[in-house]
Automatic annotation (TrEMBL):
Organism: Salinigranum rubrum
Molecular function GO terms recorded: nucleotide binding; oxidoreductase activity
Organism classification: Archaea, Methanobacteriati, Methanobacteriota, Stenosarchaea group, Halobacteria
InterPro entries from the UniProt entry: Gfo/Idh/MocA-like_OxRdtase_N, Gfo/Idh/MocA_oxidrdct_glycsds, GFO_IDH_MocA-like_dom, NAD(P)-bd_dom_sf
Residue span, Gfo/Idh/MocA-like oxidoreductase N-terminal domain: 24-137
Protein name: Glucose-fructose oxidoreductase
Keywords noted in UniProt: Oxidoreductase
Amino acid sequence: MTYTVAFIGTGPDPKNPSTDGFAMAYRHAPGYQRLDDCELVACADVVPENAQAFARIHDIPPGHVYTDYEEMLSEIRPDIVSICTPPAIHADLVIGTARSGVVQAIHCEKPMALTWGDAREMARVCEEEGVQLTINHQKRFGNPVRQAKTLIDRGTVGDVERLEFSAETLYDMGTHFFDICNYLNDGSPVEWVLANIDYTEENVLFGTHNENQAIAQWRYANGVSGLASTGRAADFVGCQLRVVGAEGVIELGADEAELRYRADGSDWTVVDTGLDTVHKPMPGRVRSGLSTVASKLPTTLSARVTDRLSTTSYEERAIEELVTALEAGTESELSADNALAAEELIFASWESARRRGRVDLPLDIEDNPLESMVEAGDLLV
């Protein structure tokens, strides 16, 4: 079976020097293109020039370019839709797409939604409509994270006692690391969150507020604890990710994303993660040069050569996994349930700051506590 794929929100061409933002559709597209059972058939963006440029680059017919996503869904009836817009409109687009009655799967960019209520509603509607909803927490597919999990499962550092991470923010980037911590701890539910934040300077990323600094603690039902530090306090943890076990420590370095571990007081052992860092594969100069040459070849040949010269991106791995899950009728690692578990920790951290106390889960709010505090003037800006 061949799955037809459409995009909502292309963004501007990322090779254009004036581009503002990541234009994640350009990262999703190669993930589908490298799969034999996927075909890119349409795209929609409220800026016609953006949609047209995306279509030209990815060989989408001119007649399949839209500014109205509902019209695109009605006329093209794609099997899979990638939603690559800012998070504030994810909920409306995911719910509208799921209720169109034409799609089998939706792959949405992170963070999941602007509010906790919207995130849960997205998941509820997709389940009701029988649509597979996945959120692009692609960093869990990087070799540093996968090999850290292997070390844990082997008992290299004994029973896990604490997970720690540092990130720019709890929301825009922290969503990845909350997801990774949950993955490393086998999806154990979280019992409570205690956090505080600083927001003395406006910090808006992709249309949404993010704290300047945060310290967050949480406790899993299996007894493992969590610690996160962001923004101005990101160096508090001292590395990107740390797993503290009863018999040792695993660390993912902040700079080169070096994965290392030590057990029973021994010296550090560095783990070879290939080309992978915490953020993306980093091919060496030779491969990069050959890839540049390959890009000048005819489109079909170039794609095959480039795929063999460079390791797959994390987005490509994520998309292959979700398509495989769709084919098999199994739950994807990027499922709405897993995404909700990460999102809940973000909103619970901000809610803890709002309440000035510990928050027990499940979270019983509908809004975005940080946005609400900013709008109410409860934080200094």
